[in-house]
Automatic annotation (TrEMBL):
GO molecular function, one term: G protein-coupled receptor binding
InterPro entries per the UniProt record, alphabetical: Arrestin, Arrestin-like_C, Arrestin-like_N, Arrestin_C-like, Arrestin_N, Ig_E-set
Record's protein name: S-arrestin
Superkingdom, natural source: Eukaryota
Name of one Pfam family that matches: Arrestin_N
GO cellular component, one term: photoreceptor inner segment
Residues in Arrestin C-terminal-like domain copies: 182-335
Family: Belongs to the arrestin family.
Any single biological process term in GO: signal transduction
PANTHER family: ARRESTIN, S-ARRESTIN
Lineage of origin: Eukaryota, Metazoa, Chordata, Craniata, Vertebrata
Amino acid sequence: FLVIQVAVYMAKRDFMDYCDFVDPVDGVILIDPVQLKGKKVYVMLSCTFRYGHQDMDVMGVAFKRDLFMVTRQVYPELQDKEKLTHTKIQQKLLRKLGENAFPFFFEFPDNLPCSVCLQPGPLDVGKKCAVEFEVKAFSGENRDDRIDKQSSVCLSIRKIHFTPEDSKVVPVAETSLELLMSEKPLHVKMSLPKETFYHGEPVKVTVEITNSSSRNVKDISVSVEQVTNIILYSNDKYIKSVAKEETDDTVPSGTSLRKDYTLYPLLAHNKDRRGLALDGRLKHEDTNLASSTIVKQEVLREVQGILVSYKVVVRMMASGEVYLEVPFRLMHPKPEADDMVFEEFKRAYLKGVVYGDDDESPTEA
């Protein structure tokens, strides 16, 4: 049997986007110069937008598009190792692995979305619509050569949003309406206690209605809606309710109502909803509704992929539908500092064995 082994060492697979900066992607690759037989070794960081079940072209339209791709030569090194080493983690790995270990380092550009996928339906098969990130190490004569799976290893990673500092903004929306055949207005106000909620946290909504009109207000409902913009060849928008409370509350003419409603925008309540945007996942682990996308204003026009936002909507009937909405953010809290855990990702190929596109290296702690 011919065995070709490539090993990539990274301290983590989740890279945090804190809105004002993004964690760099860094690691170390371990090679065997004897097996390489004079070939070069490269490491590639890529961001791909998949939006079909195939990776082929149909009538000239591709089912995937590379949003970002950068490749760097790792071996033979183009600079001294000390100049290529950027982090303390890399320094520790190089000391541990010896002279055949080489560092790599990438920075994300500002105009990339975070890892997001659309939830498939119960009967959907194949690749899902998603923004995916990948680190790939491979050997070859040149960086543009066709990559041979038997001399490469691929590792899925995630770029994940974490909430910026609390802006102290209290989201509020209000409106006064002159209803048909009514001399006095209907006034509606909706507010949230804060702008950012964490995944799993209930969303408290305060609704205040002052009905000075001659009409009765009824059929009051409050919902959290996920707005997903898919930006590639065109700009498609999808709006889906992820939490809703329909009430029997009424506000007769000449009366008022002030009431708090609590909504729970959770993936657990939407498991079979096809097309919901979710945070990207690694392998088959659980995930959550997609975090709100935050993009710097100066690069907004350059961004492609899947952009997600949330809003609370209150609807009611009073001679016609009355509608009010307030945007908010649904995100992860900043993680607490924790001890780093090294993971080793290897792939050993046997001649004649065919690996599928979704195969992933086994993980050894």
